[in-house]
Amino acid sequence: MTAGGGVDEPGARTSTLVILGASGDLTARLLLPGLGTLLAGQPEREVTIIGADREPMETSAWRELVRSALTSTGCPGEVAAETADRAAWQTVDLLDEESLRGLLGAIGGPAVLYFAVPPRIAQGACELLARIGLPSGIRLGLEKPFGTDGASAKAFNELLHGFVAEERVFRVDHFLGTSTVLNVLGFRFANRVWRPVWNADNIERIDVIFDETLALEGRAGYYDTAGALVDMIQSHLLLVMAVTMMEEPARIDATELRDHLAHVVRATRIWADEPATASRRARYTAGRIGERNVPDYVDEPDVDPGNATETLAELTVEVRNAHWAGVPVTLRSGKALGADRHQIMITFRPVAHLPEGLGADQVAIPNQLVLDLGPDRVALEITTNGADDWRDIEATTMSAALGPGAMEPYGQILAGMLDGDPLLSVRGDISEECWRIIDPVRRAWQANETPLETYPAGSDGPASWPRARQWASVD
Ligand SMILES: NC(=O)C1=CN([C@@H]2O[C@H](COP(=O)(O)OP(=O)(O)OC[C@H]3O[C@@H](n4cnc5c(N)ncnc54)[C@H](OP(=O)(O)O)[C@@H]3O)[C@@H](O)[C@H]2O)C=CC1
Ligand SMILES: O=C1O[C@H](COP(=O)(O)O)[C@@H](O)[C@H](O)[C@H]1O
Q1: Which long-range contacts (CB under 8 A, 24 or more apart) does 56-64 make?
Q2: Ligand 2 site, residue 408, Cβ cutoff 6 A
């Protein structure tokens, strides 16, 4: 097995990526295809990919898996072939100390160890690494979920910090690598028009929505104990919120950006400090989405009907600082819904007053700004004079497509890891803060203080939830 080097030299384009759990779903579906988009745009990179898993795999089979996954997302054939030819396989049991030592010895140089394994295995392997010691030049890529609650995330951080510097730990949240989240930075900070109005004086509410038509898709092993709150709100949506509401960083680097994200999550509190009433939860029952019949969630393969798993979660929080106090921020995500709706929605306060003779008998219409999280688009609903009667007022939508980004989110995340730039990885304190926000909600749900409602697959969620009113207008 050969080891690439150089991940430590700034700007180096030669690096070694060791994928632990290389026979798994994440590797085949997201990691390698993401890397393919990175190599498509930056073909000069020489990445040596070492696949590692507990079952042996022929090197030729691993190389073919690498080659086809890279080309599936547009990596040129010759770059994929060269990368595949460098790839190697290592059979390892990550929970066996000797086996893990053997892997580290075989890598023999700087590398990224990417844990594409279940969280229990990643944590167990890190406990062994704490004993063995981490060879210099190694970085760790850790998938979500990071811990299972605030206490376990804190303990995991303490374990890691005992043997590796925080700058070498890359906690993955692929939403930070999505083009729209990156686009929010330019949209917010490079436009003069938003700066004076981006605060509680002018903004009435914020909604971050990630509704999916996808149902469980065979992921009960993970999802049935996580649920929508942990799967989407604890990690992704709180960070999307933080990017939307943070102050302007002095520069876009890992320290500044993450300090600013941390300021937002540290100031975030559950609305009215009432977890039971600031949240809602529901689970899908049988229904139809387009041409698909979706079974009742509890009839999905491997679901434990005894788990009160929610497939739709909503949580309202407040960022309690001088800029945002009093503005409700609702985070919502669910599966098996009628439409994919991935949006940050900013609802402005209506004008305080309309001149007499304009919009007679009409109430002022609040401006609404929607940043679509794919396909990337921005839409602003403004108020204009009526088309038929200029004395009326009516809403009109202006919209524009945003750049789709040069690569898939996992390509962006891997680029940061390979280059040693933690800009888009979740810092340890931020991860703990996100758990601190949702832990009381989980406790309230476990105590049954918030009812577990139902909705038919393919619907908009429980009929009683007041959602259509809020964002029907910008479609
Ligand atoms: N799949 C996805 O869409 C996403 C996954 N993630 C995260 O990525 C991680 C991996 O998920 P996923 O790929 O779906 O999981 P899989 O179960 O598909 O893959 C995990 C792999 O790890 C191997 N493994 C388990 N135990 C050991 C061990 N002791 N030593 C070496 N290898 C081991 C498994 O082998 P075996 O089969 O023999 O057990 C399997 O090949 C999880 O943390 C998940 O939360 C995050 C976002 C999306
Ligand atoms: O991390 C996750 O994200 C996906 C949604 O993100 P996408 O980039 O795949 O659209 C979600 O479906 C999944 O449940 C969650 O684990």
Answers
A1: 56/89, 56/91, 57/22, 57/23, 57/89, 57/91, 58/89, 59/87, 59/88, 59/89, 62/22, 62/87, 62/88, 62/89, 63/87
A2: no
